[in-house]
Amino acid sequence: MIEINHITKYYGAGESRFKALDDVSVAIGDGEFVVILGASGSGKSTFLNVISGLETMDGGSVAYDGREIGKMSERELTQFRRENTAYIFQQYYLLPHLNVEKNVRMGAALDNNKDFLPFIEAVGLADKRKKFPSELSGGEQQRVAIARALAKNPKVLFLDEPTGALDEKTGRQVLDYIIKLQEKRRFTMIMVTHNTNIAETADRIIRMNSGRIVSVTENTGKKTAYEIGW
């Protein structure tokens, strides 16, 4: 269980200071798939960064099974993220001097996972295992980043626009694989996306506006990645 209570987050200083998150509270259950929707500037990516421990909060608390990340030292937080979470960013953050296989292996090594090749195959890059990031398209690099995160076998997976750089066919394929893996392994999955159709695949939908949660909706008619619009 992730318990998020009254978190606030500010950016800037003086007259330019503004509140990016404004008294946000919600609980996310173990094994749940949650999609966060909102216009640009609504606070959804900041929310994701704060609850994942990538950014500090200015008020409130975030607790994983009772452990408050705001009370952890930097070293403890780094260890916590290493052991429990993975993040798929809009940017790829691949190591340019490592090929596809070694980039994914790096993520797998954090969980001592030696069976990482199936993740590369699942995102359609089996024939490009020895290619370097500079030899790949943007969509292919994103698929490497997705495989690397999944190979870590996280307890909680955070995703920020994971299909944004992918064409429809590949996006559906990758989304379908991630969802099926989440259902099989029951890790918690929290995804930010502009694609409102993807919300139809989630257990719950959180909508944000102006740094606040404006609605939380249970999805009673979940669809597969191949049933939604794109």
Which key terms come to mind for this protein?
six-stranded mixed β-sheet; 6 helices; alpha/beta; 10 strands; 230 residues; single chain; globular
Outline the low-pLDDT stretches: none
Briefly note the structural class of the backbone. alpha/beta
Multimer state: single chain
Largest sheet: 6 strands, mixed
The total count of strands amounts to 10
Helix content: 25-40%
Cα Rg: 17 Å
Proportion of residues in β-strands: 25-35%
Strand order across the biggest sheet?
Answer: 6-7-8-3-9-10
Approximate shape: globular
The chain-level mean pLDDT equals 93
The helix/strand order is EEEHEEHEHHHEHEEE
User: How many H/I helices?
Assistant: 6
List the helices and strands and how they pair.
Layout: E1 2-11, E2 18-28, E3 33-37, H1 44-51, E4 59-64, E5 67-68, H2 74-84, E6 85-88, H3 100-109, H4 117-122, H5 138-151, E7 156-160, H6 168-185, E8 188-192, E9 204-209, E10 212-218
Parallel strand pairs: 3-8, 3-9, 6-7, 7-8
Antiparallel strand pairs: 1-2, 1-4, 4-5, 9-10
